[in-house]
Amino acid sequence: MKKIISILFLLLVLNNVKANNLVMSTPTYNDATKTISFTIAWNNSWKISTGPSNYDGVWVFIKRQACSSTNIWATALISTTSGDHTTSVTSGSSLLSVDAVSDGMGVFIRRTASGTGSISTHTINLKLNSSLTTQPAITASVADNFKVYGVEMVYVPQGGFYLGDGRPTNTSNFSSGDNASTALFIDAAKQTAGLGAATVYTSNPVYGCPNNLPSTFPLGYNGYWCMKYEIGMVAYVDFLNSLSYDQQAIRLTKWGTRYPNIVGTYFTNMGNKGDLHIVTAGTYNTIPAVFGTSSLTNYSPVNYLSWNDLTAYLDWTGLRPMTEFEYEKSCRGTQNPVALEYPWGNTLITSASGTNLYGQIDEKPGQLGEGLCLYNWDDYNWSPYRSGYAATSTSTRSQSGATYYGIMDMGGNLFEQVVGGGSGYDYSGFTTANGDGVLGADGNANTVGWPTYSGSNSGNFTKGGSFGTGATVVQVSDRSYYGGNGYNSGQDAHSGGRGVRSF
């Protein structure tokens, strides 16, 4: 097989002036030094030492395909020593740090010093682990193909926060917190001891886990990385195109009789924007299909994600699902709760509608306002806007719809899918275990402790609202769907998702 080194462009949009443009060049492999080299650049980056005291970065991981074997794209494990990885800039304000992780699944690339603005083009050299291990194992050779992927992330620091917003007791949307009108402070002691019974964090045990939540359950106190945006259409196409035929077929089963060997078969649909579909048919049980998408969806988050779709992507990427507690921490940060607040920290909301840049790189609503949010079927397109649609170069947190830590679109656009909820499913075994890059024999995520199905009584539910729900569901502490629902079944246009990573 001819050696092909793949190029990856992940275009993610933060403001209406220019694209956020995480751009990664064609990688090259040096077999003598066992290193992968590529360039990276992205816009709208930051590292700040006050307020949120956090930073953004890029999660980078490598897939390797052995030309002489079954053409499986396997995760190439990377050295777990940060000093083994280098960048082209070694000093000054534009210095980047490469942080290795203990499982070798990838690295985080971030600013070293405080600052804001664009990250100019840097050359990154990542050293593979000494034994050239892959997951799953393949027989490596100098003729192998490589793909390098990047996901923009935001670091959420360790620290206490309030769970629940102290909403009035006459509301019926089941705020988390030790009862409907009192927020619960999550501190180191609670994380170390575990949160315990549902009566500790809910007003009625039916709204929580039937078993005690132990110290191993991610309450949000410890630091973690969270995806800056929901999973994009382009990123999801990349995922599908790295799967085997049978794994692709699993992703299509929710639609009934649809297979990767039929051109035009689609996975998701965005109405006027187009869909994610098969461009080149696969060969039954042998050669995978090639998926593609309309150019009008290139800057949009992927919808119609079932829980199993989301977790398969996260397992393959080396990330994990977030808990409902981490969702609230990601939104509220260290600030005191505001009753009935939205992810941007107040109770103001402006309905987004009327874009005249439909599907374009600078797609934005036709108005400005505090808490600008796509919800309540107020846009005729009936599909999500591009990621980061509300932010501009001068907008405040409230006007851009950003969380305390700078995470985008946690309210409206598409539902977030989280671990938690109530009505009987025991999710107490969920931990900070990240994905290992390998899917199960059934083509789904196989990380121990992750809930394995969606809908009612499933240990996962949707938060944050979508382009087709009312304003109440967008509120940070709303738990209207605590018992699970059909939104994350995979046949609903409102469901999206993102992942986090512990380290």
Secondary structure layout:
Layout: E1 8-10, E2 22-24, E3 28-30, E4 35-47, E5 56-65, E6 73-76, E7 86-87, E8 96-100, E9 107-111, E10 115-127, E11 134-135, E12 145-156, E13 161-163, E14 184-186, H1 188-193, H2 198-201, E15 224-227, H3 233-240, H4 245-252, E16 266-269, E17 275-280, E18 290-293, H5 307-317, E19 322-323, H6 324-332, E20 350-351, E21 372-373, H7 397-400, E22 416-419, E23 460-463, E24 500-501
Parallel strand pairs: 19-22, 20-21
Antiparallel strand pairs: 1-2, 2-4, 3-4, 4-10, 5-6, 5-9, 5-12, 6-11, 7-10, 8-9, 12-15, 13-14, 15-24, 16-17, 17-18, 22-23
Structural write-up:
This protein has three domains: 8-156, no CATH class; 158-230 and 306-503, no CATH class; 233-299, no CATH class. It is 10% helix and 23% strand. It has helices at 188-193, 198-201, 233-240, 245-252, 307-317, 324-332, 397-400, and strands spanning 8-10, 22-24, 28-30, 35-47, 56-65, 73-76, 86-87, 96-100, 107-111, 115-127, 134-135, 145-156, 161-163, 184-186, 224-227, 266-269, 275-280, 290-293, 322-323, 350-351, 372-373, 416-419, 460-463, 500-501. Strands 5, 6, 8, 9, 11, 12, 15 and 24 form an eight-stranded antiparallel sheet that branches. Strands 1, 2, 3, 4, 7 and 10 form a six-stranded antiparallel sheet that branches. The protein has a three-stranded antiparallel sheet with strand order 16-17-18, covered by helices on one side. The protein is globular and about 65 Å long. The model is unreliable at 1-19 (pLDDT under 50).
